[in-house]
Design a protein that fits this description.
The chain is α+β, with helices and mostly antiparallel strands and about 180 residues long. The chain is built from 3 helices and 7 strands. Helix content is about 60%, strand content about 15%. Bound molecules: zinc ion.
Length: about 180
């Protein structure tokens, strides 16, 4: 490997290039250069400097578009999330959660059974049947709450995957244009 010094035709910087290399990109102005080996000297010829600028502009626009898409994705997810929020009995709102849906359902079932046993044991007429309604509501709540929680989780993981993809695309574009 033999190193030669050549002058960049784009910005005038002095570059060290391997004799065997035919094309080189300037470290300073990023111009693409052809290394021309004459009998007496080695010099560079400018290639596509304008293309380079156009390319970097196109990349800037691409980054901007990706960033807009990221913002839109975040906004959309936030509105989906808000729409799926579950209101608790105490008025608090939280994300759909399988554990709390199951727990709430079990509590209702236990309450319904207790009601039936209690009202039945003191001979409360038709009232024990009301416990069945409570049990039914508990089972229904448990199933629908779990379904909603799993739907929420799959939407969230899809959002996060897309978000990660966009971020890495943005980073890649920024790295290239530097
Ligand atoms: Zn240069």
């Amino acid at each position: 490997m033999q190193i030669t010094k050549v002058c960049c035709q784009g910005c005038g910087a002095s570059l060290e290039v391997d004799e065997a290399i035919r094309f080189v990109t300037c470290n300073y102005c990023h111009a693409r250069l052809e290394v021309v080996h004459d009998t007496s000297t080695t010099h560079t010829k400018l290639l596509e400097q304008l293309d380079q600028r156009t390319e970097s502009l196109a990349r800037d626009i691409k980054v901007l578009k990706l960033e807009n898409e990221l913002e839109r994705l975040d906004r959309e997810w936030e509105s989906t999330r808000q729409a799926m929020m579950v209101r608790g009995k105490d008025g608090s709102v939280s994300e759909p959660n399988a554990t709390s849906a199951t727990f709430g359902g079990i509590m209702a079932i236990v309450g319904g059974v207790a009601w039936m046993i209690f009202t039945g044991s003191i001979g409360f007429g038709p009232f024990p049947l009301f416990g069945l309604v409570v049990i039914g509501v508990g089972i229904f709540g448990m199933i629908s709450g779990n379904r909603k929680a799993s739907e929420f989780e799959s939407l969230r993981s899809r959002y996060q995957a897309r978000r990660g993809q966009l971020i890495s695309e943005i980073q890649r574009e920024k790295l290239v244009s530097r």
